[in-house]
Design brief:
Order of helices and strands: HHHHHHHHHHEEEEHEEHEHEHEEHH
Helix content: 40-55%
Shape: elongated
CATH architecture of the largest domain: 3-Layer(aba) Sandwich
Number of strands: 10
CATH topology of the largest domain: Rossmann fold
CATH class of the largest domain: Alpha Beta
Radius of gyration: 29 Å
Distance between the termini: 68 Å
Amino acid sequence: MSKRFLIDPQTTQDIQLLDVTGRSIWGFFNHAITAGGEDFLRELFFNPLSDVDAIKDRQLKIRRLEPVVQEDFPFYRMVVIDIEKYIKRSHSGERSGWGLLDLFVAKAPIYYYKVSSIIETCDFLLKSQAFYKKVNAHQPYDDIAEMIHIHEECLSMIFKGGPYNTEQLKINRFNLDAYDRLIRYELSGKIKQAIAFFYEIDAYFAVTRTATEYGFCYPEIYPKHHTSEIHMQEVYHIFHQHPVKNTIQMTREKRIWYLTGANMAGKSSFIKTISTVLYLTHIGFPAPASSVKTDLIDGVFTSINLQDNLELGYSHFYAEAIRLKEIVDQLDKNTNALIILDELFKGTNHIDASNAIFDIIDHLSHIDGPYVIVSSHVTDLAPRLKLLPVVDFYKMNIESGEEGDPRFTYTIVPGVAEEKLGMWLLKKSGVFQSIARLKDMS
């Protein structure tokens, strides 16, 4: 088994995990309030796991915040940044006596900076401790209980047994240095620990809020080859506001799918859905489905948005061949990674494409290797592929309207697509009218 979940830059681009120019899966979940929370969330998101217990542990850290998802989370990005900067400023630990010069310091910017930083630090400790207590009121968690205790140690020393109220601190030029030394020197380690833990909570809470808002499920994950199945109930693409949901079940016995369907029928969206959900599963995140059950898989690889490589002189067909070789070269023997090949070998003529697709699928079918989904418009290849026992056939269902026009359902059903919609789409585009207009102008 691979020691890590495999995914490469082309796949990351294909399924829009990170897209700096538009929508991305990362952006969909990235609602952390603080910069530190965002950094921690990024670490979670771009480091998929290959251990069942680690995935379940991450899911728990997200789900345990569900009972407080409607609670106020009164923290602000810049305030926490300021607190962290204040705590990290070095302090010698020496106590300074008060003298005549302190009368002038009391009116200096550094004085007001320290006062506001001390109050902000206390306010942060009070609010974060109150939030953690609400979480543990539903079910106690050891790490949160420990953090509540650390907060309590800090607050009791700052407020010296008095009520925990920042308005009663009464900071002045006579006690400012004592408070400053206490927070930046004596309690520095504990407060840094509290801030680091808060960043984790901020990151997990961002995912919790997203999952709750959209009603996502938490996938059930099993050891590799435990069930030998990938099952997704009512799954859909995360970007679709009014999604059509599909249910799929891939097995090792039928681990290669030949997916057909006309242009605009939804093939690309469907295969992106499957790969995205499997990735989310392996980072321990919730997924857009009513349920997901899968074994650990070794990785996800896609070939969807390939372009000609003019610098290297690659045609589209050759670029597809090179991409397929890149994918296979990253796999180990007996891998159960998922390979998705969208409109495979569309960069050549129909006969070449048909022969090339068959040979690739034939070779893959004779090894106990990856799950494979090949989407294609080459439907007349189906009779040859039916001779391969591990190949199954699915299509994007299209129904006929009252006037014989196609109705795209965006649902996947068993079978091979028979619809020929090229001419219908051409007529619908209005291109013939445009050509006729040119003719009339002559």
